[in-house]
Amino acid sequence: MTTIIVGAGASGLACAIRLKQNMPDCMVTILERMPQAGKKILATGNGRCNLSNTSAEGCSEVIDFFTSIGLVTKTEEEGRIYPYSNQASTVLNILLTNCRLLGIKIITECTVKEINENLRIKTDKGIFNADNIVIAAGGMAQKNLGSNGSGYKLLSSLGHNISSLYPALVQLTSSSKYPRILKGHRAKCNMAIQLDGITVSEDFGEVLFTDYGLSGIVTMNLSKTVSENFAKENPKKCHAVLDLIPDMSIDEIKEYLSAFHNLKGIIGDDLSDIIEKQAEGDISKTAIYCKSWKLIITGTKGFDFAQITGGGAELNQFNEYQSKLIKGLFACGEVLDKQFECGGYNLNFAWYSGIKTADKITSIYKGI
Fold first, then answer.
1. Dihedral pair phi/psi, residue 144, rounded to 5°
2. Are 175 and 298 in contact (CB under 8 A)?
3. Which of 77, 163, 215, 311 has CB atoms 3.0–4.6 Å from 208's, for a disulfide?
4. How many whole angstroms separate alpha carbon 330 and alpha carbon 358?
5. Rounded to an integer, what distance in angstroms lies between the CA atom of residue 156 and that of residue 127?
């Protein structure tokens, strides 16, 4: 049996290794457009590779997989799982080492131009024929790391529906002057996204003020709402509304202000000065602003800065990662319409879907 995997990212590498673990005699080849396999893995988790989360679906299977190939992991706060070395390069090196040991062929700088329903692959390095093809080409986020959306085009050409694509887990841009003034400052707060004055999503976490707008985990998690809004022909007016002191009520803040005359002892000098200036020194207004500080949102930083792509190949046309339309066609990872919040969940899905795709191919081949 010959299986060709399009894309040597997280899901593609996991799929290849699991398939060879299950069936050592099968032929597995990965076609990778970039000069280097797994380049995006090196950038995950700020170079530490937050490879899973204890709350993620299939986490135990993912960790068992990495244990089987020699990677030692550790769990930190909020269930985030990292390699024990704290280096993403360790994860990639372990994956590539196992590919070599298992006889998995990786062809880099190979662009797939066309796949037909007979599983014939046309590339700039020749024609390939396979019994199974796995599309693991990633999304459109961070194209400098290899994601250019080609997987969507390949699946679409084979009849698969692709839902609307948008940058997800991405920073937000703002025309308000205050994020620029506060550049580098962080605030642990509740953040809501309002469209035409109506709250449509909210979350709690750290906000990072930047020269372009807002970053931080809570910003990333709420960016889907913003991306979808500005993808529309007539987007609604968008604001980020921050509760800067979620542990205190308006009355408690007013009481504090009456005693100490400013909020520097709670939210720091710079943020306190801005809020008090906006409120013109009025205690009631200052307290209200602290609980609902509005910043104008003009959009997102786009695909080049997004951690993942929202949307993708519609899941209802797959059965356990197997295409319902083309026999022998599979897809896994970011190319599918399946997204999660920050914290290792999306990378976990890449590994997990690659592993389960390999298991599905194995079960079909063995008639299980």
1. -65, -15
2. yes
3. 215
4. 9
5. 20
Helix (H) / strand (E) element for 7: namely none
Question: Residue 368: which pLDDT band, with cuts at 50, 70 and 90?
Answer: low
pLDDT at residue number 303: 95
Q: Are 48 and 85 spatial neighbours (Cβ–Cβ below 8 Å)?
A: no
Whether the predicted pLDDT of 367 surpasses 80: no
Bridge partners (DSSP) of residue 31 are 6, 107
* Tokens, residue 36: 């280097």
In DSSP terms, which residues pair with 300 in a beta bridge? 172
Cβ burial, residue 6 (10 Å; 0-12/13-18/19+): buried
pTM: 0.93
- Candidates 197, 202, 198; CA nearest to 223 is 202
Tens-place pLDDT, residues 83-118: 999 999 999 999 999 999 999 999 999 999 999 999
Half-sphere exposure in the Cβ direction for 24 (13 Å, CA): 3
Tokens of 47: 């170079």
Can you name the residues that pair with 206 across neighbouring β-strands? Answer: 188
